[in-house]
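thoughts on both lines:
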Amino acid sequence: MIDNNQSHSDNSREQMLSGSAWMTAGSILSRFLGAVYIIPWGIWFGDYFFRGNALYGLGYNIYSFFLIAAIAGIPSAIAKQVAHYNALNEYGIGVQLYKRGLVLAIGTGVICAAALYFGAPLIDGGNTNVVPVLHSLAWAILIIPTMSLTRGYFQGYQQMAPSAISQFVEQLARVAYMLITAFLIMRVFNGNWVTAVSQSTFAAFIGAVAGLLTLGWYYVSRRDTFRSLVSNSSNKVHVEPGTLYHEIITQAVPFIILGAGITIFMLIDQFTFFKIMRMATNYSNDMLSDLYAMFAVNSNKLIMITISLSSALAITAVPMLSVALTNGDKKEIAKQNSTIMVLFMFVMIPAALGMAAIAGPLNRLFYGVNEEALGANILTFSSMISIPMGMFVVISAVMQGLSQNRRAVKFFAVGTLIKFIIQWPCVYYLGAFGPLLSTAVGLTIANWLIIRSLNRQFGFERKSLNWAFRKIGLYSLLMYVVTLAAVYGANYLVGLVSTPFGRIASLVVTVIGVAFGGYVYAYFCLKSRVADMVLGPRSARFRQLLRIK
């Protein structure tokens, strides 16, 4: 019996690692494409770069909120409920859930797309340039809910590859359209920069079509497998259509609120930053727009690469925790909770500290030398803030996977209230750093409340978790120091032959810093065996490859 439990636990960890690997790869590649496009995009926009990027961010924040409302938490709810019924060998109900969810997804997509398109003049924040951007983004909302729902269906079967690959294809098509239209409008036809931004945001629709077609191909190729599972189901459970809709909506509402968590914080910044700064300073609108672009768009694009790692973990965790909860295996839940936390720390802490160490050359690589010192400092601070942001993404998903929805929403509401309370003094006295600090404080409090609740309800394997945290924290700090030293050394060496502030030189310095820091972190994690907690048997192969005993 012990062996069976151990085998089940090992299988769960392997499934989580495999799923996380797929989702992490898809998220990183997608986020990387979503960040690296900014280099040619910014060059082609020329003097309009910061204004164009700020406009892009202003439109995208509003769009993100409407998109989350359109998706309505249905994909994650479907993933959770499909996993639940699959664990009971009731695959047929999972198919019914998908079909009912499809009706809801199409309906919410049409409603929210229409609301965004026709309501754009009412929510532009007094900036008329935002209206055409919102109009172009409304089209994507028609398709993305259906695409996201289909991803959730695959995730319910713990098949993460279709989601990851479709995510990458979606981003590839989106970036390609953005770059082609930006080049044609700004460089070939010398067009209007607002039109170019509008086409860049319309690219979300192009990407969504490509992503949905990819998922359709996967569904058709695996249709026989799904039909076989349905035909061999127990068929002991019958659920009325009305009950299915109720299950989806009940599970989905918390996913809307928590899924929109970071977006809600960004919207608070968007609608308060300019007003508070006009009270605190006499900066021009263009200067305020540049500051907003630096903390809300520029640095945000880069830290979202690391936060996407957390999203990958969160997506993988929900259906697996739902299965453990369905089976009533509290010990397995505690073990999975600990595994998720170790995975998060193993990836997120060094990623955040590493980005902080290379903030100078990284910021120059993507955004040039305009306001480079301020931009680098904001990116450094944002990198640190990405840790509580990423943690919220992960542990709020854990709460939902364990059906602790109301508690999770309540704790998020507390964090949001804290941000509201301290937003004004933070922005007034700290400028562009203020919104980041208020976000960090609000999310840290929400995270503490969630972790305390998880510990009381289900527990953690505290001994192994504490050991892993100490080791990962120490090795991450060592990596940070080595990376920082490598950056300073590389800047000096590059400066002997050319200016270290160009994009090519910054790329060289960034690669050197990442190489040195990454090797140090990998070496100590493999040497101390802390990597074994995350990578399992794979770590032995890495030790052999790097000749570590």
Notes: Residues 1-9 have pLDDT under 50 and may be disordered. The CA atoms of residues 62 and 267 lie 7 Å apart. The two ends are 34 Å apart (CA to CA). The longest helix spans residues 285-326.
